Amino acid sequence: MGKKKLIIHDVNKSFVVNGQSVDVLKDINLEIEEGEFVVIVGHSGCGKSTLLKMIAGLEKNDTGILSVDGKEVDGPGMDRGMIFQEHRLFPWMSIEKNVQLGLKGLSKEEKRKLSDQYLELVKLSEFKKAYPSQLSGGMSQRAAIARSLVSQPEILLLDEPFGALDALTKIELQEEMLKIRERFHNTMIMVTHDIEEAVFLADRIVVMSARPGRIKDVIKVELGKYRDRGSTDFTHYKKKIFDYFFEEKTVTPEYNI
Ligand SMILES: Nc1ncnc2c1ncn2[C@@H]1O[C@H](COP(=O)(O)OP(=O)(O)O)[C@@H](O)[C@H]1O
Ligand SMILES: [Mg+2]
Fold first, then answer.
1. In which band, very low, low, confident or very high, does the pLDDT at 102 lie, cut at 50, 70 and 90?
2. Which residue among 12, 22, 24, 216 has the greatest number of ligand 1 atoms within 8 angstroms of its CB, and so is best to mutate?
3. Which residue, of 96, 135, 180, 183, has the fewest CB within 10 Å?
4. Can the keyword Electron transport be found in this entry's annotation (predicted)?
5. What separation in Å is there between the alpha carbon of 47 and the centre of ligand 1?
């Protein structure tokens, strides 16, 4: 067993909507080890983004405790970086300047060195002087990844980061994610709608129920480092997760995967 990086203990969360309290997350208990890649799947509205925001310190839990390295989360911190579905780059700044936003208290030269290094990592060196509007969706998302990584967060929180990309770009970026993880050993927590993406990337997959979101199951994916999307074992995991969703909708599964 590795070192515990994140502990979520008895967390509940509700929001008040039109004067009524709505339960969003119920009895969330989860421990994540340092360097682990955990992927969260669940229906839209089951509280996945809310959970990530609580880990990021952008949203407060009602009950229970979230702690990173044994320290209770109390607001955002440089140890946690977040990547969203929309890249959220500033349109009026060059890609290079956007990436440097993740850096504080360094000289211009140091900032330039680091942004160069991370832009090279995501294969955007040639575009450092370009503006976000001049980049494709996949390139913008690469820039957003570089911006998050440059401050060297120990935990990277990814909220459907490839959800808006075309299928091939998505596959390319999924492979990049594995390389990044191998190089930096960050702890990764990713939310996705894409079951194949989950099986391709995760050490463990957290399956959530519809709202209020509860953890239905945590599936350990034992498929090794590089995964063949067409293999029988891969398909087995995909089906297992699909079945959870069909079970919830109480429809007869008439599908072939
Ligand atoms: N700030 C908020 N105020 C009120 N309700 C919210 C707020 N944020 C999220 N919700 C509600 O909480 C539920 C879960 O939202 P979210 O975490 O975004 O779900 P998911 O990411 O799984 O689709 C939704 O019903 C959403 O409308
Ligand atoms: Mg969401």
1. confident
2. 24
3. 183
4. no
5. 6
